[in-house]
Design goal:
The complex is a heterodimer of chains A (77) and B (245).
Chain A (H helix, E strand, L loop, with lengths): L2 H14 L20 H15 L5 H4 L5 H11 L1
Helix pairs in contact in A: 1-2, 1-4
Chain B lengths: L7 E4 L5 H12 L3 E6 L2 H11 L3 E5 L5 H15 L4 E4 L14 H29 L2 E6 L3 H4 L5 H21 L4 E8 L5 H4 L3 H8 L10 H12 L10 E4 L7
Parallel strand pairs in B: 1-2, 1-4, 2-3, 4-5, 5-6, 6-7
Helix pairs in contact in B: 1-9, 3-4, 4-6
Classes of the chains: A mainly alpha (77), B alpha/beta (245).
Chain lengths: 77, 245
C-alpha cells in the first residue's frame, strides 16, 4: 500500500467513522461509506491540508470514490 | 450579557454608524475584531478607540479578488473567523423605470454577491472548527419593498433567501446563519433628511422614534453568542414595530 493511499485512508476512516477494511478502491464516499455532500466537501478540505495541494471545485466533483481520491492526489503531487 | 471571550469576528462596513456599533458591541463582549470597510481613517479611529484585540482590514467589496483575500487576511490576523457580520451595503436609488443596469448590478454585487463570497470563505474554517456564527444585515425594505429601491430591496431579500439556504446546509456543523433587518436607524445617512421627511417617517413607526445603531448591535451580539446556538435561518426585525413580520 502506497504512502498516499494509507494517509487518505486514515483521513476517511477518521472523518466518516468507518471500518478501515470498508475503505477499498471502489468504495463510494456517499453510497458505500455513508458520507453526505457536506462530508465530501470536508474530505476534500482535509486532503488539501494533508497534502498541501489545491483541489479546485470542478475536480472535487469528480472525486467520488476512495480510488478517485488517491488517483487525483497522486497526480497532483 | 453575552461572553465572546476568545472568539474572533470579522465585520464589514465597520466604518459606518451601524457597523461601528456592531464592532464595539462584539469587542465589548470580549471578541477580537477585524474591522473592514472602504474608508481607512474611520476604521483606524474606531480601532484606536477600542484598543487591544482590533485589526484594520480595508477592502473594496466591489472587487472580487479583494473580497476573496479579505477572509484570508482576517485569518492571518486573528487565527480564525468565528463570527462573520456582513454589514456593508450600498444604495443607488432611482425609480425603477429609470434604473440603469449599472445601478442594479453595482448594488447586487456589493450587497449580495460579496456577502456570498465572504460566507463561502468563512464557512471553510467554521466547518473545521464545528462552530460559527454568520449574521447578515439586511433591511426592512427587503420584506416591505420601498419605492426607488428596487435594486437595494432585491439585494436584501436575496440575502435573506441565501442565508436560509446556507443555514440548512451547515446547521449540522454547529454553524448558524441569521439576518438582522433594521428599520429606520439614526445614522449619518438619516441625519441628512429634512424635519418634514423625518416627521413623515415617524408616523409609520409605532415606537415613535428612529432606532439607535446600538439597538442593531445588540441583536447581532445575541445572534453571535453561544446562547443563540438553536436560532438559525431567522431574520430578527429591529424596527420599532414599523413592519411586524
Amino acid at each position: 500500500m502506497s504512502d498516499v493511499e494509507s494517509r487518505v485512508r486514515k483521513i476517511v476512516v477518521e472523518h466518516l467513522g468507518v471500518e478501515e477494511d470498508k475503505v477499498v478502491e471502489s468504495a463510494s464516499f456517499i453510497d458505500d461509506l455513508g458520507a453526505d455532500s457536506l462530508d465530501t466537501v470536508e474530505l476534500v478540505m482535509a486532503f488539501e491540508e494533508e497534502f498541501g495541494i489545491e483541489i479546485p471545485d470542478d475536480a472535487a466533483e469528480t472525486i467520488q470514490t476512495f480510488g478517485d481520491a488517491v488517483k487525483f492526489i497522486n497526480g497532483a503531487l | 450579557m453575552f461572553d465572546l471571550t476568545g472568539k474572533t469576528a470579522l465585520i464589514t462596513g465597520a466604518s459606518g454608524g451601524i457597523g461601528g456599533a456592531i464592532a464595539t458591541a462584539l469587542h465589548g463582549a470580549g471578541a477580537t475584531v477585524a474591522l473592514s470597510g472602504t474608508r481607512v481613517e474611520p476604521l483606524q479611529a474606531l480601532a484606536a478607540s477600542l484598543g487591544d484585540r482590533t485589526h484594520v482590514l480595508p477592502c473594496n467589496l466591489s472587487d472580487a479578488e479583494a473580497v476573496a483575500a479579505l477572509n484570508k487576511q482576517a485569518v492571518e490576523a486573528m487565527g480564525s473567523v468565528d463570527i462573520l457580520v456582513n454589514n456593508a451595503g450600498i444604495t443607488r436609488d432611482n425609480i425603477f423605470m429609470r434604473m440603469s443596469d449599472d445601478e442594479w448590478a453595482s448594488v447586487l454585487e456589493v450587497n449580495l454577491t460579496s456577502t456570498m463570497r465572504l460566507c463561502k470563505g468563512a464557512i471553510r474554517g467554521m466547518m473545521k472548527a464545528r462552530w460559527g456564527r454568520i449574521v447578515n444585515i439586511t433591511s426592512v425594505v427587503g420584506t416591505t419593498g420601498n419605492p426607488g429601491q428596487a435594486n437595494y430591496a432585491a439585494s436584501k431579500a436575496g440575502v435573506v433567501g441565501m442565508s436560509k439556504s446556507i443555514a440548512y446546509e451547515v446547521a449540522s456543523r454547529g454553524i448558524t446563519v441569521n439576518c438582522v433587518a433594521p428599520g429606520f436607524i439614526a445614522t449619518a445617512m438619516t441625519d441628512k433628511l429634512s424635519d418634514d421627511q423625518k416627521g413623515a417617517i415617524l408616523t409609520q413607526i409605532p415606537a415613535g422614534r428612529m432606532g439607535d445603531a446600538q439597538e442593531i448591535a445588540a441583536a447581532v451580539l445575541y445572534l453571535s453568542s453561544v446562547e443563540a446556538a438553536y436560532v438559525t435561518g431567522a431574520t430578527l426585525h429591529v424596527n420599532g414595530g414599523m413592519a411586524m413580520v
